[in-house]
Design brief:
Layout (H helix, E strand, L loop, with lengths): L15 E7 L4 H16 L4 E6 L4 H4 L9 E6 L2 E7 L4 H11 L10 H13 L3 H6 L2
Parallel strand pairs: 1-2
Antiparallel strand pairs: 1-3, 3-4
Length: 133
């Protein structure tokens, strides 16, 4: 799991999480990690989380990842996006900007919702984060 330095939120607002599902053996994933971290640094109000689908297989559960990188973006438990993304910083930045204009979340397949619920359960709440050193 990520350490608490990966957590960013504004008090009282839904916490938008940007989860990248990748694998250490994947060259594209290893290269994309720097892009993901760069975009995350530019958006400190969001929580960027890197999930290795093999090292954290218990968290990923039944979600099948066929294309890397695959992103899951959610506002708390409300799914906003789930799918593969081309590995350029501009693509992720445009997606995040576009999602800011959308209304309520979208329906998630049961296995995707289970992944999101598992991530929510495994991470500190905004209040817990605020108390962290």
């Amino acid at each position: 799991m990520p350490d608490e330095s990966d957590f960013h939120s504004d008090a009282g607002a839904p916490l938008r999480r940007v989860l990248c599902l990748c694998a250490q053996w994947c060259d594209t994933c290893r290269e994309y990690r720097a892009v993901f971290d760069e975009v995350g640094a530019a958006h400190p109000q969001l929580q960027f989380v890197w999930i290795d689908i093999e090292d954290q297989a218990d968290l990923v559960g039944d979600v099948e990842v066929e294309t890397f990188p695959t992103l899951l973006i959610a506002d708390d438990a409300a799914l906003r996006f789930f799918g593969p993304l081309t590995p350029q910083p501009q693509t992720l930045a445009r997606l995040l900007e576009g999602l800011a204009l959308q209304g309520p979340g979208i329906s998630a397949a049961p296995e995707v919702q289970a992944l999101l619920d598992g991530v929510l359960a495994a991470m500190p709440t905004q209040t817990e984060h605020a108390k962290s050193p």
